[in-house]
Amino acid sequence: MQQYIIGNWKMNGTKAEAQKLATGFLSRIQKANRPLPHIVLCPSYPYLVPVIEILKDSPIEVGGQDAHFEKSGAFTGDVSVTQLADVGCKYVIVGHSERRHYHQESSSIIRKKIEASMKLGLRPILCIGESIEERKAGKALNVVASQLISDLPDSFTPHDLLIAYEPLWAIGSGHVPTLEEVEEIMGLMKHELSARISGSALVPTLYGGSVNAQNAPDLLALPHVDGLLVGGVSLKLDEFWEVINASQR
Ligand code: 13P
Questions:
Q1: Residues whose CB is less than 8 angstroms from the CB of residue 12 and which lie 6 or more positions away in sequence, other chains included
Q2: Model's pTM, two decimal places?
Q3: Which CATH number describes the domain made up of 4-246?
């Protein structure tokens, strides 16, 4: 499977910086002389349209960082999956731990967001992962397995969505699980997925949390890692480009 390198810009930058980054990635893509992975950039809402404009004729796709599951209505401050699709987004991050933590997002809301996105052909990137307390208590595998059960809709195909394993303690911390720990969780995810729906081991499974140019090659070489979800480093043109070039498939 062609790997995915997804940049989550979070709540960072200005319009000018977003445009400069998008233009920078576009020119690197145009000069690239090797097969590239799927590349997806997820800017803040106000910069989606300017970034989509720059990347419209390129293979780089754009995604939202979250979305409301209703099509429209009195939800001040929210943006719907329908609106994201309308402006040309192809992906949307759902259930990021920062949304679960700061906005008290529950599994039932996350599931509705996934279902609403899938209906529109917008591919959700579901984020799951354990806290440091859960990891220390030896519960990481159980937490991830139960998040898969509670967050995923009853039916989906491998092309409908992606799943990113982002241990909470690895996000923005500089701490990354060992390669064995990553592979153990990714293997479990593939196993749980295929036990639920046949063929769903083909759902792309990504790793996220303190990814950088140094650790990306080893992470991307793991058999069950189908890509990376990158935060801080995705705002750095040169280093993110190195991560993209570390893709193996
Ligand atoms: P960092 O790469 O900055 O640790 O962030 C990971 C993340 O949360 C991506 O969604």
A1: 44, 235
A2: 0.97
A3: 3.20.20.70
